[in-house]
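Field reference: sequence -> structure
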Amino acid sequence: MVFIRKKNINGKQYAYLVKNRWTDKGSRQKAKYLGKIIHLDIVDDKLNFREMIQSKFSMNVEEFFRGHSKTEILNEMVFYELIRRGFDWEEIQINDERRNLLANNKYYYRARNLYHKKNHREAIIEINEGFLCKLALDKFARTKIEGYDEREKGIQLAKLLLEAGLKIDRDLFVLMFEKWDKE
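Structure field:
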């Protein structure tokens, strides 16, 4: 079993990846440092995922889910959460190439990773009872939901959403379940 643990050290919170394993002497844990946990308050609580998709892609959410890959859908869900927390699109120069990033005054997001602007170390956002970080997003992207019935598959998808800190309404969950269940 693998999970993220939060530790308080000198008044600051840090995330660790914890792996459980059984040995002859019982259960053992191995922890690996992931990064500093940050808390970002919602700045724009009026932003709606459906409206964001409509304005960005000129299509409704149902069409977006049908016409885009799981990775693209997941990215838009992450963008939605970050934009609600004050991130904007920025253009930067990387290796003689101009690229767009989602950023605020302290952090930037690229390739399923949130980084500190000063030291470029990974940061983990604690949101909606989960952790928005590369580990959780990669797990979400590569996990194929499996089970013997729809209820079991739905619980598995809900756990992935919760672990990644992504919160969606019931209608979007149904669309997402249909997409993840087919692929």
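Note: The two ends are 25 Å apart (CA to CA).
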